[in-house]
Amino acid sequence: MRIELKDLEFRYQMNTPFERLALHDINLAINPGTYVAIIGHTGSGKSTLLQHLNGLVKPTKGSVVIGDRTIEAGRKEKHLKGIRKMVGIVFQFPEHQLFEETVEKDICFGPINFGVPEEEAKKKARIALKLVGLSEDILEKSPFDLSGGQMRRVAIAGVLAMEPEVIVLDEPTAGLDPRGRKEIMDMFYQLHKDQGITTILVTHSMEDAARYADEIVIMHQGSIFQKGTPFEIFSQPEQLIEKGLDVPETVRFQLKLQKELGVRFDHPCLSVEDLAGEVKRVMERGSR
Amino acid sequence: MEEKLVSLKDVTFKYDGQDRNAVDGVSFDVSKGEWLAIVGHNGSGKSTLAKLLNGLQFPGFGSILIGDMELSEETVWDVRKKVGMVFQNPDNQFVGTTVQDDVAFGLENLGVQQQMMVKRVQDALNKVKMNEFLDQEPHHLSGGQKQRVAIAGVLALQPDIIILDEATSMLDPRGREEVLDTVRELKEEKILTVISITHDLEEAAKADRIIVLNQGRLYREGTPDEIFHLEDELVGLGLDIPFSVKLSKSLREKGVDLAGSHLTEEELVKDLCALNSRI
Amino acid sequence: MLDKMIFGRFVPLDSPIHRMDPRSKLLLVFFFVCVVFLANNLVTYAILGVFTFILIALSRIPARFLFNGLKPILLLIVFTLLLHIFFTKEGAVLFDLGFVKIYEGGLLEGIYISMRFTFLILVTSLLTLTTSPISITDGMEQLLGPLKKWKMPVHELALMMSISLRFIPTLMEETEKIMKAQTARGVDFSSGPVKERVKSIVPLLVPLFVSSFKRAEDLAIAMEARGYRGSEGRTKYRQLSWQTLDTLLMCSLVVLTALLFLFRS
To answer: Which residues of chain C have a CB within 8 Å of the CB of B110?
Structure first.
């Protein structure tokens, strides 16, 4: 399923004294099966952008095309449920949305809302629980008796059980420890690889973006500042730094080394392994 | 011999209804002016330890000495004057309706005179560079700014020790940087002794000393250099190692002739430069 | 969400009324509510009107905000006016429409009562428009201070109020966030049969309660860590200062009352 944002603009509190421009001149196409990372500072509009992806907010100008539905500014939209079934969102700190008496009921909540029969929903709950790395014996527990990390996983399972074609992740690992962070990120990547789920990751972490995404979109002050493959984006790190944005630590290190050592790297390195190899190569070349 | 400010002996604590001790026979000292990082994955007992240090919980066994006072139900209010805490969630520790009211809250509790309060609130906010936000309401502040106000609230009480209980874990990178910069400055000006409880290894790398907790026990204690030498062992504990340590390890594995591990990128760049000129 | 609630919201401007002590403003509202009932003829109502409009002019609050405050009450005012016009049978008949007669007394009474309403609303909203909620809380705490002698938990009530004020925007934000998260999980908050909509409150309220309790617990710990142990031995950071202006306001109230007594029939 393809998602396209066309000439999109969004203002909060239109026609009140509190009106505020949050997004403008957004043109973005997300092709099926891609992994896109959206990056930017707090307040750059990335969270507002993601809410357009399943009709939680409507543009004040322009349009959003989601599969065969078009949400246009100024038009009354009804029956957005279909869209929401196809585009699942994992919000920041998703454990805050848990409410049912048991883990099973909570995971089934989404699927049942979208018309899945109860028995089938329960099956889906078990599959989703396995995906997030939890065992079935917590199904009957109250979600509020779990540890923070487990709650996060149950909440994610609740979205996965909806079997969306597109999954939007808003800082899914915020507040987790390093191991938890890696496990969750790897899990989503595996899901993307195995099932071809279109994945849209909103993050502060340039490292995660560089590691997982096919395409990176950089937001700055409510509009798209740059988009391209990680390779393209980090080939010109200076532009990002100028805007006060981060670059992956590997690229930052390359810049330092280039300056101090007076050498040039051929390409941006996006993993520690790659960087170590390049540093070695560059130094050996320099010595010859 | 440096002055010992905090001293823990065999501290053990168990939550009701749990089989395992949350904190199990932990002993260590903190010297005046030091920055100690206590690291461990979620559930390693580090947050419980923080609560014990401030008398929000009392150990079932063992003793905690703050200055020359042993922490107990009788001394707890005096201990709290010496130990300030900044908690994880920036929203849930903001008591006042505005920045200055919040900083003043602790002072009001101590019964400080009003004119004195005004001065101390101002001073504390100056130190965390939030003096231009006096009348700002909390929902207009960023997470990093709220945490800096929380630090100011602690500073105003002029304690000896500040405990940061995962104070940066809910912040974005910019907010984290703001808070850590603030703490570093305070430490350098010798205003405070810092105990930071964290799972962020970049934060721990800035400390003078690190204690690694695992399953409630003290797993290792040492300088950041010593601790990060553990490399894969740390990863096995659910932690991570800083980028420069990772890179230096990878370079050594590839046969680049580097001696030892590198705690900061600057050190690594310097060593690489030295190596380069030698070749 | 919060921004939609314009009625009675504090408008931070700089005016003599804004600068006044919240205590004097609270007393003003209290006495005004009492003396309003003294008026019973054209002159006394005119005096009240002049007094109200002087206050409004001094506050520099744009008329738009005041009108917004009146809007919800407008219907009630019109209704009482009509009620009196049609059902009070006093004085001379002004119009005879055949099926109903309108009396002079009814018309006057109707106008008086709607004026009384309007003045009351204007003066009370003036209080909230020119005084920040926290100042109102402080003022109340001070004014009710003497009640502490009779074991009234005045300090605790004031603290509760100020913490509630502090957390209203946070909880509003949270509500919006949870609503969006549950909408994304297929809940429909805005349409569908009533039964369904009532049911959809549960996934909103439960998380909201859970997080509020968590917040309350965290806050209690944070307050304790900062040495909070009740009102005993506590000092106050916010000081209220009674100025000449406040004394003048009180004097003007006395004058107002005197005038009302003098001219009422």
So the answer is: 227
Over residues C101-136, the pLDDT tens digits come to: 788 888 888 888 888 888 888 888 888 888 888 888
**Of A120-134, C2-16, C36-50, highest mean pLDDT:** A120-134
Q: What is the share, in percent, of chain B residues with pLDDT greater than 70? A: 99
Q: What are the Cα distances from residue A97, in Å, to A91, A156, B172?
A: 9, 10, 21
- CA dihedral (C219, C221, C224, C229) in degrees, to 10, reads 70
Q: Where are the domains of chain B?
A: 4-232, 242-279
Q: State the DSSP code for A156.
A: H
Name B137's Cβ contacts closer than 8 Å, sequence gap at least 6.
B97, B98, C166, C169
CATH number of B4-232: 3.40.50.300
Task: Give the integer Cα–Cα distance in Å for A64 and A169.
Answer: 19
Residues in A closer than 8 angstroms to B142, CB to CB, are: 42
Cβ contact, residue pair C226, B112, below 8 Å: no
Q: Which domains are present in chain A? A: 3-243 (3.40.50.300), 248-288 (no CATH)
- Residues near C176 by beta carbon (within 8 Å), at least 6 away in sequence: C1
Say if residues C216 and C114 touch (Cβ distance below 8 Å): no
Which range is least confidently modeled, A28-37, A204-213, B234-243, C64-73? C64-73
Long-range pairs for A179-187: beta carbons < 8 A, 24 or more residues apart:
A179/B41, A179/B238, A179/B239, A180/A149, A180/A152, A180/B41, A180/B42, A180/B238, A183/A133, A184/A152, A184/A153, A184/A156, A185/A211, A185/A212, A187/A131, A187/A132, A187/A133
Rounded-to-integer distance, Cα A1 and Cα A66, Å: 7
Cα C109 to Cα C40, C41, C97, C159, distances in angstroms: 9, 9, 20, 44
* Assembly ipTM: 0.90
The pairs formed by C106-111 with CB atoms below 8 angstroms and a separation of 24 or more are C109/C84, C110/C80, C110/C81, C110/C82, C110/C83, C110/C84, C110/C85, C111/C81
Of A70-79, A93-102, A240-249, B12-21, which has the strongest mean pLDDT?
Answer: A93-102
A280/B255 touch (CB, cutoff 8 Å), yes or no:
yes
Q: Tell me the pLDDT band of C4, cut-offs 50, 70 and 90.
A: very low
- Per-residue pLDDT tens digits for A151-196: 999 999 999 999 999 999 999 998 888 888 999 999 999 999 999 9
Give mean pLDDT, residues C193-207: 87
Closest CA to C218 of B102, A149, B90, B72: B90
Q: Which two tokens stand for residue A192?
A: 């993307």
pLDDT classification of B113: cutoffs 50, 70, 90: very high
Which segments within A59-197 are labelled E, that is strand? 61-66, 69-72, 87-90, 166-170
Query: How far, in Å, are B270, B273, C24, C112 from residue B266 at the CA level?
Result: 6, 10, 63, 81
Round to whole Å and give the CA distance between B7 and C116. 70
Q: Yes or no: say if B197 and B166 are a contact pair by the CB < 8 Å rule.
A: yes
> What is the spatial distance between Cα C116 and Cα C134, in angstroms, rounded to a whole number?
29
Contact criterion met (CB < 8 Å) for B272 and A283: yes
Q: What is the pLDDT averaged over residues C136-145?
A: 88
Flag if B238 and A180 touch (Cβ within 8 Å): yes
Using an 8 Å CB-CB cutoff, list chain B residues near C220: none
Alpha-carbon gap, residue A154 to A144, rounded angstroms:
11
